[in-house]
């Protein structure tokens, strides 16, 4: 019995012996970012004050969305081409995606908080992994935020610098063709700038935060798979003897992380649909708007920043999700091809050897045949193949746009 002990516990997690400063930072950054929208992401509870604040944000964004939608329909009905309305259509898509994301996040806040706390507790045991997640979180947050600020600054500055003649094209879209008098020009500019502020610094930034938060969860799931794989791979390469308990324990831990991946996929599938559709539509609208001659340098910079932001978010979304898919199946081939040594001990009976063989076959079958990944409402997995398909769609649109011009 004593000899069996030395074969066990190869795959057990180490307990934390110190406070992990990086997990504390991660908790702080997500807490403060979602607090700005009335959500407590680590508790899931919402006070009456938070509910009222979220309701105000949702109502304001909905009013902006309805105004933009009616304005676009009105102008399109009076012979304004879709190319001239491309920028406003992109703002419309962003507002809709933000309101939808906020509503879905609010409904699933308790389940999201439970999953987040569970993954954070596991991450707290690994200092180096938490450091990598912290760095990845900073990159995924700072980049889109800086591009969003640049886009908002260029757009609002462009409006502020317009004279009476330059405001005519904006008045035609936002005020249904009514041209404001000179004494009301400042009020008209303030109203348009207010809508830009709501869309770009409230709606768009909430999408940035939500995508970054989803990528953060995916990173934590990825490192859970990575830790399991590194432990088992090290044992296989070194020719360590794996007991039946080791194989069963790894299979149980692998199943646990797969369940967390499925829960993550189920919770965020609707939001991923909104995000991906919004990114593709916005890219098409922005590219068409960028193609129009006569745009000012400020608007060109704003369009370019918006395109870069959406490409950044799409790449981050697909990259980290595809890493989960790859890491979950990484050891499948090695486990089949490498020889797993059975514990050679006189106390191991024929039944123990058969039990070891069965656990080995079950683990091999699980790693090879189990499909693990982030599914988008059952339509497709977030991986490199689906990313290339999305990129092909945008490239096809670019070719059509170039030929039509």
Give a written overview of the molecule.
The protein is mainly alpha-helical and 405 residues long. The protein has one domain. It has 13 helices and no strands. The radius of gyration is 26 Å and the shape is elongated. The model is unreliable at 1-18 (pLDDT under 50).
List the helices and strands and how they pair.
Elements: H1 2-5, H2 21-35, H3 48-77, H4 86-107, H5 109-123, H6 127-160, H7 164-174, H8 185-237, H9 244-291, H10 297-328, H11 332-337, H12 350-369, H13 384-404
Q: Can you give keywords for this protein?
A:
77% helix; receptor; cell membrane; Gustatory receptor; 7TM_chemorcpt; mainly alpha; elongated; single chain; 405 residues; membrane
Mean pLDDT: 80
Number of helices: 13
Span between N and C termini? 79 Å
Count of separate structural domains: 1
Q: Which percent range describes the beta-strand content?
A: under 5%
- Uncertain segments are 1-18
Helix content: over 70%
Say how many strands there are.
0
Largest sheet: none
Radius of gyration: 26 Å
Secondary-structure content class: mainly alpha
Topology pattern, helix = H, strand = E: HHHHHHHHHHHHH
- Categorize the overall geometry: elongated
Short structural description:
This protein is mainly α and 405 residues long. The protein is built from 13 helices and no strands.
């Amino acid at each position: 019995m004593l000899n069996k002990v030395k074969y066990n516990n190869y795959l057990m997690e180490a307990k934390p012996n110190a406070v992990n400063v990086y997990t504390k930072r991660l908790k702080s950054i997500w807490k403060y970012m979602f607090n700005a929208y009335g959500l407590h992401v680590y508790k899931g509870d919402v006070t009456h004050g938070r509910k009222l604040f979220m309701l105000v944000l949702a109502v304001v964004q909905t009013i902006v969305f309805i105004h933009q939608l009616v304005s676009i329909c009105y102008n399109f009905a009076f012979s304004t081409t879709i190319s001239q309305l491309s920028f406003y259509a992109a703002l419309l898509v962003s507002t809709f995606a933000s309101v939808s994301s906020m509503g879905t996040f609010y409904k699933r806040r308790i389940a999201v908080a439970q999953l987040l706390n569970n993954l954070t507790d596991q991450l707290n045991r690994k200092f180096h992994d938490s450091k990598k997640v912290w760095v990845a979180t900073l990159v995924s947050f700072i980049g889109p935020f800086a591009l969003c600020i640049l886009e908002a600054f260029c757009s609002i500055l462009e409006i502020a610098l317009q004279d009476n003649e330059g405001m005519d094209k904006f008045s035609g879209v936002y005020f249904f063709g009514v041209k404001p008098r000179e004494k009301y020009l400042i009020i008209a500019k303030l109203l348009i700038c207010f809508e830009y502020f709501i869309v770009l610094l409230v709606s768009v930034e909430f999408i940035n935060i939500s995508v970054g938060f989803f990528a953060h969860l995916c990173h934590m799931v990825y490192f859970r798979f990575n830790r399991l794989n590194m432990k088992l791979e090290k044992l296989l390469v070194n020719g360590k003897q794996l007991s039946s308990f080791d194989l069963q324990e790894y299979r149980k831990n692998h199943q646990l992380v797969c369940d967390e991946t499925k829960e993550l996929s189920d919770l965020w599938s609707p939001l991923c649909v909104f995000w991906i559709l919004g990114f593709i539509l916005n890219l098409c609208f922005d590219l068409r708007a960028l193609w129009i001659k006569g745009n000012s340098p400020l608007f060109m910079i704003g369009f370019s920043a918006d395109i870069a932001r959406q490409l950044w978010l799409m790449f981050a979304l697909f990259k980290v999700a595809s890493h989960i898919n790859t890491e979950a199946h990484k050891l499948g081939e090695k486990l089949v091809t490498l020889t797993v040594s059975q514990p050679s001990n006189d106390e191991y009976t024929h039944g123990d050897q058969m039990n070891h063989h069965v656990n080995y076959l079950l683990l091999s079958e699980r790693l090879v045949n189990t499909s693990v990944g982030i599914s988008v409402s059952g339509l497709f997995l977030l991986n490199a193949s689906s990313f290339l398909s999305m990129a092909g769609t945008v490239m096809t649109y670019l070719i059509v746009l170039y030929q039509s011009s």
